[in-house]
Specification:
This protein has two domains: 78 residues; 188 residues, 2-Layer Sandwich (Alpha-Beta Plaits), CATH 3.30.70.260. The chain is built from eight helices and seven strands. The strands form two sheets. It has a five-stranded mixed β-sheet. A hairpin with a 7-residue loop joins β1 and β2. α1 packs antiparallel against α2, α2 runs antiparallel to α5 and α5 runs antiparallel to α6. The longest helix is centred in the N-terminal third of the chain and has 69 residues.
């Protein structure tokens, strides 16, 4: 291998320059004594040695040139590798953010050591017909104060034959049954009563689990945001954080609503009373009412006529045109 080397561009190609010249030199050394004089032999030896020397210098120059080219190629390769590295880091950042969300959202099981209590939403509907309306309303309000309940809304109605009130009552779930029994225990008649129980345990646990994973996803994104190097990466991660935060707030709102409905039950109470003496108008009152109703009808008629004034205007114009046409025909016949 002292006289043979591999090509730097093609490692599988071996150059045999030294080997060729060495073989020529050996052949000439062996054959020359039989074909020429000693002086000629010395000249041939010098010639071969000079050619070997020149070939060696030429190969050294080529090696230097290749070395310079290799340096430039190494620089270019390093630059390219750096570009690939930055692109790889950007792609890796995006993959990490996507993997964080997908991997954490797949695990929605809530680890709890204690058994989960039932989450029940209780809703009651009661309709009471009473004789003494004011007394029964006061009794119901005292029951509300007794069991720590409050009225979230009410609508009282008074007309010619009845007076009543529709109340929406909120009470703690543990006092729901006691308050219901207290409301219907009065002297009034229970026209209708219904109780509805809605089990939201599964939804409650599911939202808690999803909130846990969403918060972990948000925390993972914030860690990735600290490692972001370019504006594009920062904007991409912040967009992900904003979307996750919206989902967290929506689920927190739903969980808060469920907690309120579970903690406080709802009772819809309709309490009313009919009047004992219903007013019956006399003969003269009926005549007065008839005149009043007739006068109201006349006013309505005139109002309707005024609303139709465009039609009346068009009708008058058409009537005038027809009358003129008839007069012209009469004049033509008379003449």
């Amino acid at each position: 291998m002292l006289f043979c080397r591999k090509d730097t561009k093609r490692p599988d190609k071996i150059e045999f320059r030294y080997c060729e010249w060495l073989i020529i030199y050996v052949i000439l050394t062996v054959l020359t004594p039989y074909t020429c004089t000693m002086k000629r032999l010395i000249q041939i030896n010098y010639f071969v040695l000079v050619m070997l020397f020149l070939n060696s210098c030429s190969m050294n120059d080529q090696a230097e040139i290749l070395g310079m080219g290799g340096g430039a190629s190494s620089a270019e390769s390093a630059y390219t590798d750096q570009g690939y590295l930055e692109e790889y880091e950007m792609d890796d950042m995006a993959k990490k953010s996507e993997y964080a969300e997908e991997n954490l959202e797949q695990d929605t099981d809530l680890d709890v050591d204690e058994p989960i209590s039932k989450k029940i939403i209780k809703t009651g509907d009661v309709s009471l017909e009473v004789e003494d309306y004011k007394a029964e309303v006061e009794r119901v309000r005292s029951e509300l104060n007794r069991w720590g309940a409050y009225v979230s809304s009410e609508n009282e109605v008074n007309n010619s034959y009845r007076t009543g009130n529709s109340l929406v009552i909120r009470v703690r779930s543990e006092n729901f049954d006691s308050l219901m029994n207290g409301i219907i225990s009065g002297e009034g008649k229970v026209v209708s009563k219904s109780v509805n129980l809605l089990d939201v345990t599964e939804e409650f646990v599911d939202i808690q689990a999803r909130l846990k994973t969403k918060r972990e996803v948000e925390q993972r994104y914030r860690e990735i945001l600290k490692q972001a190097r370019s504006i594009e990466e920062i904007l991409r991660v912040e967009d992900k954080i904003g979307r996750v935060r919206e989902e967290i707030e929506a689920k927190e709102g739903r969980l808060k609503y469920l907690k309120d409905r579970v903690s406080y039950s709802t009772i819809n109470l309709d309490i009313y009373s009919y009047y004992d003496d219903i007013y019956e108008p006399g003969f003269l009152s009926k005549i007065g009412d008839a005149f009043t109703a007739g006068w109201e009808g006349i006013k309505v008629f005139f109002v309707v006529v005024l609303y139709l004034w465009p039609l009346w205007l068009i009708g008058i114009i058409v009537w005038i045109l027809i009358r003129r046409a008839v007069r012209k025909r009469r004049k033509v016949r008379e003449s």
